[in-house]
């Protein structure tokens, strides 16, 4: 196992009715900016629960944060926060609203061009406004991590940043608020969490028993419960387990002390920047092709994944690896997610664009060995065509 420091300061308020407990966790005298998305939080009644819980506090609201949140919109929210002298942010929504909130929290105190926060991957952030979240879609883990991904349409870029000042102070996880999710978003959330786990697990063995065992349990839970959430969408226990799985998938715990490979995400971000494909769907396209392409570097872990996640134990190594990759693709397809680039309208010209965007964004040394280049990504994308 590698050396690591692990610290996660986010308090989790999990379960039915927990939105009411915001009252205990937002400072009494806070001037709160509530941030939300395109209207689902209003329609589903979650925003009303939040307003009630905040009682007499001074509240400003900012709606309209897009899926794959836009830089320009987030900058408008920064202006709103400054104009209203806001000192606490509350994100109500999914990864997009939470990511935007992290960026806004950091940009509120940033002198100069806030785009630097993204291009520096967060290293210029010295301070951020305190914030909490009310999560409405289990998917990204953003509710318990310090990462954020922002899309700049003008620049055709989707970039991530991370900074320890950007952990939420608390996150409310009420599985009942996920009952209103459309099938497409249930599926996206499951696929996103699945690939988060894979990016921290499917590298090379370092004898990290706890992290591996934990990751395998989370993967098996998604494989078991993802399709059940589609069949039986009002099942509380299914939703509760999925919600906690997605949080644990990317709160730093399974990634501590192990090598990581975020190349599916880096390549996937460029697909979204190109044509706004849902984040999770880009991952479901890239991952199976990447696993196949990188099978020589990942042999040990691919065999472990085949055995411990899919119960594939028979046959030659190559046969077992083929079966595990096929099972992964089938799982995404069972969730209603197509796994080919052509399904999202990306052809040869699109692949050229993605490869040059990876170069422009400095993604020249991806993967757990830093050995995946943009030209390797071209080969992977051609295999995913
Ligand atoms: N910070 C991180 O660690 C991290 C990790 C992975 C991905 N991301 C980013 O997060 C974004 C995706 O976030 P997401 O997958 O959580 O989805 P999202 O926040 O984009 O939401 C997807 C859609 O679901 C709707 N929705 C949300 N909750 C709902 C509910 N309860 N009922 C009905 N509709 C609801 C939203 O209005 C939206 O239209 C992408 O930009 C991705 O790049 C961030």
TrEMBL record:
Fe-containing alcohol dehydrogenase-like C-terminal domain sequence ranges: 187-381
Domain Alcohol dehydrogenase iron-type/glycerol dehydrogenase GldA: 9-175
Reactions listed under catalytic activity: a primary alcohol + NAD(+) = an aldehyde + NADH + H(+)
Cofactors that this protein relies on: Fe cation
Signal peptide: none
Key word Glycoprotein present: no
GO cellular component, one term: cytosol
Pfam entry (one): ADH_Fe_C
Molecular function in Gene Ontology: alcohol dehydrogenase (NADP+) activity; butanol dehydrogenase (NAD+) activity; metal ion binding; methylglyoxal reductase (NADPH) (acetol producing) activity
UniProtKB keywords: Oxidoreductase
Entry similarity comment: Belongs to the iron-containing alcohol dehydrogenase family.
Name by which UniProt lists this protein: NADH-dependent alcohol dehydrogenase
């Amino acid at each position: 196992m590698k050396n690591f420091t692990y610290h996660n300061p986010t308090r989790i308020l999990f379960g039915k009715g927990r939105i009411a407990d915001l009252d205990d966790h937002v400072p009494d005298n806070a001037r709160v900016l509530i941030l939300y998305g395109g209207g689902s939080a209003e329609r589903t009644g979650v925003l009303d629960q939040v307003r009630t819980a905040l009682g007499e506090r001074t509240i400003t609201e900012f709606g309209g944060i897009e899926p794959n949140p836009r830089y320009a919109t987030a900058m408008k929210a920064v202006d709103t926060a400054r104009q209203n002298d806001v000192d606490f942010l509350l994100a109500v929504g999914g990864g997009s609203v939470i990511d935007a909130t992290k960026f806004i929290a950091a940009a509120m105190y940033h002198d100069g061009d806030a785009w630097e926060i993204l291009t520096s991957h967060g290293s210029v952030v010295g301070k951020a406004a305190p914030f909490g979240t009310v999560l409405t879609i289990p998917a990204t883990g953003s509710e318990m991590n310090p990462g954020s991904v922002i899309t700049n349409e003008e620049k055709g870029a989707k970039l991530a940043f991370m900074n320890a000042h950007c952990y939420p102070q608390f996150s409310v996880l009420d599985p009942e608020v996920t009952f209103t999710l459309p099938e497409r978003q249930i599926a996206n959330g499951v696929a996103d969490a699945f690939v988060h786990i894979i990016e921290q697990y499917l590298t090379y063995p370092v004898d990290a028993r706890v992290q591996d065992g934990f990751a395998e349990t989370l993967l098996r839970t998604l494989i078991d419960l993802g399709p059940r959430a589609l069949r039986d969408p009002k099942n509380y226990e299914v939703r509760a387990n999925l919600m906690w799985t997605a949080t644990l998938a990317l709160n730093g715990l399974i990634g501590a002390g192990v090598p990581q490979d975020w190349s599916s995400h880096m390549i996937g971000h460029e697909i979204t920047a190109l044509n706004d494909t849902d984040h999770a769907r880009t991952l479901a396209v890239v991952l199976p092709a990447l696993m196949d392409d990188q099978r020589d570097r990942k042999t040990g872990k691919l065999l472990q994944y085949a055995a411990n996640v899919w119960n594939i134990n028979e046959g030659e190594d190559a046969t077992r690896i083929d079966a595990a990759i096929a099972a992964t693709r089938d799982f995404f397809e069972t969730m209603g997610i197509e796994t080919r680039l052509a399904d999202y309208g990306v052809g040869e010209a699109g692949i050229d664009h993605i490869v040059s965007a990876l170069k422009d964004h400095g993604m020249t040394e991806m993967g757990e060995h830093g050995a995946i280049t943009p030209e390797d990504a071209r080969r992977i994308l051609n295999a995913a065509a």
